[in-house]
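Late entry, evening session. Most of the bench is empty. Finally got around to the prediction I had been postponing all week. Sequence below, unchanged from the version circulated by S.P.
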Amino acid sequence: VTVEDLSAPLKAVIRAVRIMKFHVAKKKFKETLRPYDVKDVIEQYSAGHLDMLYRIKSLQTRVDQIL
């Protein structure tokens, strides 16, 4: 199927969908350009670090039980 074979309404729908996709991608791109909230980043890092420490402690306990 070539572009010439498509009807005018179908071409209009395809064009509209592409424009919507463009605007969604543009919005997502603008969101990635926003500066990070440093407090939020530090809070997430701390939470992840605490989770990692808990897992290490749990693994150490299991190793101690095996030995």
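Two things to note before I forget:
The first helix runs from residue 8 to 33.
DSSP finds two helices and no strands in the chain.
Will write this up properly tomorrow.
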